[in-house]
Design a protein that fits this description.
Blueprint (H helix, E strand, L loop, with lengths): L3 E4 L6 E4 L9 H14 L1 E4 L6 H9 L11 H4 L11 E2 L15 H6 L18 E8 L7 E5 H6 L3 H7 L3 E4 L1 H7 L7 H6 L3 E4 L1 E3 L6 E3 L5 E4 L4 H15 L5 E4 L6 E5 L3 E5 L9 E7 L8 H4 L3
Parallel strand pairs: 2-3
Antiparallel strand pairs: 1-2, 3-13, 4-15, 5-13, 5-15, 6-12, 6-14, 7-8, 7-11, 9-10
Bound molecules: fe (ii) ion (FE2).
């Protein structure tokens, strides 16, 4: 059976048929999936109750892993229930119990309910993320995706001209500040030092321009802070209008992969006492979005 894509909305996302994620992916199948990612930005695979090993094999068939630091809060405490190569995006501790409501690791992690692009706070940001649901809560917990190419296209010409040369600084300190999480150690402040990313990117696969937004973006180089924050807020509001968004309702056995170079996403709330076991692998990007020597903020 050949691989088929069924578009989810006119702008973003497709469901994929004709792949069994338990089986090794052939190079020809990988090419088709890359082309599907370029075109739809988010691909959804249903009813794939795979193991961590199969999830990893599928990931590696599509590219090299992002190997830089994982979930900073959990890895620093040793509270980790998955293989090192996975990002644990669940709300579960090492004993598979939901974190207490006031647990610092949970309060840091729910920053992912702000719109963002994965690891935009790294010098070389992520290419794809592949998230698989093992257990889902009784309600809530959707992941929403917004198409940054469509958002760019819908900007007026003055705004396109204004933002074309701009460089932003991204850090997890900025995104957490937005939700009032501000207690960081000196060591964390060093570890989360800002990196620079351009605000307008061109996608290497489809040639499309997109607006590279993320709640991690907190400053624009050369701009006064209030003006920078207001522009970023306006752009984010524009880019996350419902017409650009697909909201994925998770079922166990779903695997969703998205292209961080042309989308933002966010998690949605769910009952905190329930388990939401979702596991992510991440494929590395190829290069910084700005010149290497400029990528680390002064
Ligand atoms: Fe994310």
């Amino acid at each position: 059976m050949s691989i088929q894509f069924r578009p989810i909305t006119p702008i973003i996302g497709a469901e994929v048929d004709g792949v069994d994620l338990r089986e090794p992916l052939t190079p020809a199948q990988a090419d088709i999936i890359h082309a599907g990612m370029d075109r739809y930005a988010v691909l959804v695979f249903h009813n794939e109750p795979i193991t961590n090993e199969q999830h990893m094999a599928f990931t590696l068939a599509l590219g090299a892993l992002e190997t830089t630091q994982k979930n900073a809060m959990r890895s620093s405490t040793g509270d980790y229930r998955l293989p090192e190569s996975f990002n644990d995006v669940s709300n579960l501790d090492r004993n598979n119990k939901p974190y207490a409501r006031d647990d610092r690791k949970r309060l840091f992690a729910i920053g992912n309910r702000l719109w963002h692009s994965d690891s935009s706070f790294k010098v070389i940001p992520a290419k794809y993320s592949l998230l698989r649901a093992v257990r889902t809560p009784s309600r809530g917990g959707n992941t929403e995706f917004a198409h940054m190419g469509a958002a760019y296209d819908a900007l007026d010409e003055d705004t396109k001209t204004l933002i074309e040369p701009l460089i932003c600084e991204h850090s997890q300190l900025f995104s957490r500040d937005l939700i009032g999480f501000r207690e960081f150690t000196d060591e964390e402040r060093v570890r989360f030092a800002p990196v620079r990313q351009r605000l307008v990117r061109t996608h290497p696969g489809n040639g499309r321009k997109s607006v590279y937004l993320s709640s991690h973006a907190g400053t624009i180089v050369g701009w006064q802070l209030p003006e920078a924050r207001l522009l970023l807020r306006d752009l984010t509001e524009h880019a996350t209008q419902r017409e650009f968004v697909y909201s994925h309702k998770w079922r166990p056995g779903d695997l969703v992969m998205w292209d961080n170079r042309q989308t933002m996403h966010r998690g949605r709330p769910f009952p905190p006492e329930e388990a939401r076991d979702v596991r992510r692998t991440t494929i590395a990007g190829h290069a910084p979005t700005v010149e290497q020597q400029e990528a680390v903020a002064a």
